[in-house]
Every structure is written in C-alpha cells, then in structure tokens.
Design goal:
about 300 residues; mainly beta; about 5% helix
Length: about 300
C-alpha cells in the first residue's frame, strides 16, 4: 500500500455580496424617521428619572404681540431621592395669564412627608401654609413635569432626529413643529441621552397676534441626575408651626396657584456628561396644555 492521500479543504469562495450594515440604534421612542412614539419616550424618561435625585431649571418668557416682554418666570427645583424631600423656588416678573393677582415668589419645601409653602405677593404680603402627607404626590407631579408637556402633539410626521456623539456619549437632537386650533404654532427642541432621558428641552408657542400674548418660550434643563441633592430646610419653615393648619392668605385675591418657572443651567455635580447645548434659533414643542397650565410646575399646595 502507498501513502494515504491527504484531505484538502477547499477555500471559501468569495462573493460580491456586501456585509450587512448594522442597524443604527436609537433611544426608546426615537427612530431614523423622527419621534416615533412620544408616549414611549416620555414613559422611558420618567422611568430613568425614577426615584433619583435631580435639579431642574426652567426659564419662561411671554412676549406681547408687538414683541415686548410681557412677563418672565424662573423656577429652580432641587429634588432628593424618593422620600427625602425637595425644594422649589419660583419667581415671576410682569403680568400672568390669570386675572387673579399672582404671587411674585413661591417657595416650597418638604422633608419627605409634609409640604410647606410660602407665597410672596407684589404688595409685600406673605402667606405660609402646610399640607401634611402630600410630599410624594407633589414629587410625582414635579417629576412628570420634567418632560415637555406638549410632547404628545408630535410624531414621525412632524419631527426629525439627529444622532451625534460628544465626550464619548451618544446624544439625540429632536426637533419638530406643529399647529393646532387651540394652541397655535408650537415648536419643540429636545436633547435626549442614549437611555431616553430628556436632558434639555425648549418649547415655543405662537398665538394669534390679536391676543394679548403672542409668543411663549420655555426652556428646561435637568442636571445632577442621581447626584447628592439634599435640599436645605429654609428658615421660614420654622414659622409654619402646625402642619395641620394653613395660614390664611392676607391678600384679597383669593387663593393663588404657584406659577411655573423655567430654569437656567446648573452645574452637574455628579461627574456625568452635561447635555450638549441646543441652538437658540429653535422652535420647541407644545402639546395638550392650557394657557394657564404652563405656569404650573407641579400641583403645589394652594393657600386659602
């Protein structure tokens, strides 16, 4: 017998078919077509935020039909992790959308159980009140208010999404414009991180020039996500001695609900990447909210 014949494995024959391109991934609710599901994005945003601590700044400017500033408001919210309290401060200049005399400064603080509120009016009068066992309810409303209120008016037909990387992180810019009979022209600009957290959003709503207020611009930014946020107890809380009794409002305007403020950026103390700045020439979104509701950052306790 001779030598055994070695087995030869034929080499793979190359083909001209290109390798499949990887399908780009987007944050929940987003796709290459735009904002595919505003409900999914909003739900994911609130889920990621969860019971963590965060800081929110909001700035709102209302312009008259002639372009002059009718009113401005700012809000700062410092929220500790769930059950550990929060602090909010809202300041307003100018006239508001309600015929009732608004408070020019509203402060709220909670130890995680009761909520204490101080309202200062333009004539210098001050009212203080407390609401027992309402902290989680108010905190829940604050958290829901971190997403654009009018996000439900947008979808893939009227939005675009741009994905980009910055400082090693993936971000998404979402932009859109819509119109409704109730709210007029509404524009939206959002900066979303890879988890689906809306870190920054800006909304512009243009009303009829025949109305007193022709445009409202609101910008919100979240920072210090899951950082060490411990709201300090304000000294004025000591004057609200009985959490079961509300101090009557010394003004004659009746009860007043806290206006919604917008925020200016705050330093991120967690070391995580800050969201990239959004362009100023943008027209953010607005969805199903009444004109007065844009003043309310949360159902803050009302003095009586």
């Amino acid at each position: 017998g001779g030598e055994p014949t070695p087995t030869v494995t034929p080499m793979a024959v190359p083909t001209d078919e290109p390798a499949p391109m990887p399908v780009p991934e987007f944050a929940p609710g987003l796709s290459e077509r735009g904002l595919a599901s505003p409900e999914t994005l909003a739900r994911t945003h609130r889920s990621v935020l969860g019971g963590t601590s965060f800081v929110m700044h909001t700035n709102t400017t209302r312009l008259a039909a002639n372009g002059s500033t009718r009113s401005t408001s700012t809000t700062l919210v410092r929220t500790a992790s769930a059950g550990r309290g929060f602090l909010y401060i809202t300041e307003q200049n100018g006239s508001g959308p309600s015929p009732r005399a608004p408070a020019v400064r509203v402060e709220g603080w909670s130890d995680g159980n009761d909520v204490f509120v101080k309202q200062t009016y333009a004539n210098g009068t001050v009212s203080r009140s407390s609401r027992p066992n309402t902290a989680e309810q108010v905190r829940y409303s604050i958290q829901r208010g971190t997403a654009p209120y009018f996000i439900g008016s947008f979808g893939p037909a009227n939005t675009t999404v741009e994905r980009f990387r910055q400082n090693g992180s993936t971000w998404y810019r979402v932009a859109g414009t819509t119109r409704s009979e109730l709210f007029g022209n509404v524009s939206l600009r959002m900066t979303v991180d890879s988890r689906g957290l809306i870190r920054r959003h800006r909304t512009t709503r243009e009303e009829s020039p025949a109305k007193n207020r022709s445009r409202t611009v609101s910008a919100t930014r979240l920072s210090a996500i899951d950082g060490v946020v411990v709201p300090d107890r304000p000294a004025w809380v000591d004057n609200v001695t009985d959490p079961r009794a509300a101090t009557p409002n010394p003004t004659t305007s009746g009860s007043t609900r806290a206006p919604n403020a917008t925020t200016t950026p705050t330093t991120n103390r967690t070391g995580t990447a800050d969201p990239p700045a959004t362009e100023s020439a943008q027209r953010p979104t607005a969805a199903n909210r009444t004109a007065a509701e844009s003043w309310v950052v949360a159902p803050m306790p009302v003095t009586s």
